[in-house]
């Protein structure tokens, strides 16, 4: 299974904001620089995260981006599932019609079960469980 770029970028933002622990808000420019990601991509990421209550945003001079309590309480599997934004993330028998769909093919069912097991396994952890040996180097200028 492969996660999309949007999920990757979103998780980076959430991990970074969580580690900052609301000590200081972050800006889009700061995040873009830290992760070498286009500011335009991050605008979409932060807007999605904000619309889903995972980050709090405030405009203006004292504005910025902070992680929400909802994001810190969610299991990683639930976060990944939300970020993937796909009802059938592993395989879709409808998107490109499959000749086997009317012949009781079990592949989609097996893959859906495996994906759910993947999410269940990730849900045993939260953002706070993600540890980094050299985390201070991320915050150094």
Describe the structure.
GO terms for molecular function: DNA binding; DNA-binding transcription factor activity. InterPro entries: TR_Rrf2-type_CS, Tscrpt_reg_Rrf2, WH-like_DNA-bd_sf, WH_DNA-bd_sf. This is Transcriptional regulator, BadM/Rrf2 family. Keywords: DNA-binding. The chain has a two-stranded antiparallel ribbon with strand order 1-2. Helices cover 51% and strands 6% of the residues. It has one domain (5-139): Orthogonal Bundle (Arc Repressor Mutant, subunit A), CATH 1.10.10. α1 packs across α5, α2 crosses α3 (39-51) and α5 packs across α6. It starts with a helix and ends with a helix. By secondary structure, the protein is mainly alpha-helical. The protein has helices spanning 5-20, 28-35, 39-51, 69-73, 76-84, 107-122, 135-139; strands at residues 55-58, 64-67. The model has no long low-confidence stretch (mean pLDDT 86). It has 7 helices and 2 strands, in the order αααββαααα.
Give the topology:
Layout: H1 5-20, H2 28-35, H3 39-51, E1 55-58, E2 64-67, H4 69-73, H5 76-84, H6 107-122, H7 135-139
Antiparallel strand pairs: 1-2
